[in-house]
Design goal:
By secondary structure, the chain is mostly helical. The protein is about 70% helix and about 0% strand. It binds fe (ii) ion (2 copies).
């Protein structure tokens, strides 16, 4: 299949191993993919989840919420070797779930009020995160280990993508009166 060959080629190139060398060896191929996933998780987890002004959507309430959202996601980082890491992760997830529920309700109310045309798909994005957080919490409560790494990687990736790609689509409807779009402010500063 052409699509599968493309993925294989791209992944093997990232590790500088020619795909013909590993393609006929399933065990080697599996090891390469596993290493690739592990490295990506390490890189992802090393990145600190902190809100930056470049992430602003131009609405004071939403931007303040997003700062707190990023901080709560960073709060998931927990000492996996500590005796009570499971309990700490559950508490961090509970805080995040509770805040996300409130923040999403605010955004969704604004979207309905402003008759934003992509409200339904945006709500589905929110629901997707809530379902995943609930699943992670239940797995953690059931005593599963290794949930912290997965929870941190997933939520960091989700919040970055959502704020930068999904929430920002809402900018023209979100902006406070008198506020210009972040892109416009950036352009105005250029000589
Ligand atoms: Fe948001
Ligand atoms: Fe959102």
């Amino acid at each position: 299949m052409i699509g599968e060959e493309k993925v294989l080629f791209s992944d093997t190139r990232a590790l500088f191993i020619p795909s013909p060398v590993i393609a006929p060896r399933p065990i080697l191929l599996w090891t390469v993919f596993e290493n690739y996933e592990r490295r990506m998780t390490l890189v992802n987890n090393a990145f600190q989840c902190v809100w930056k002004k470049e992430f602003a959507v131009g609405n004071a309430k939403i931007d303040e919420d997003h700062k707190q959202f990023f901080a709560l996601v960073e709060g998931i980082r927990c000492g996996s070797r500590s005796a009570n890491s499971g309990r700490r992760l559950i508490e961090a997830l509970n805080r995040l779930i509770s805040f996300a529920r409130e923040h999403f309700a605010v955004e969704e109310e604004m979207m309905v009020l402003k008759e934003y045309p992509h409200t339904e798909s945006h709500i589905r994005h929110h629901a997707g995160l809530m379902a995943k957080l609930e699943e992670l919490r239940q797995r953690c409560e059931a005593g599963e280990t290794g949930v912290c790494t997965e929870a941190l990687a997933f939520t960091k990736s989700w919040i970055l993508r959502h704020v930068l790609l999904v929430d920002r689509q809402f900018i023209p409807w979100l902006r406070d009166p008198g506020q210009t779009a972040p892109e416009q402010n950036e352009r105005d500063r250029r000589p």
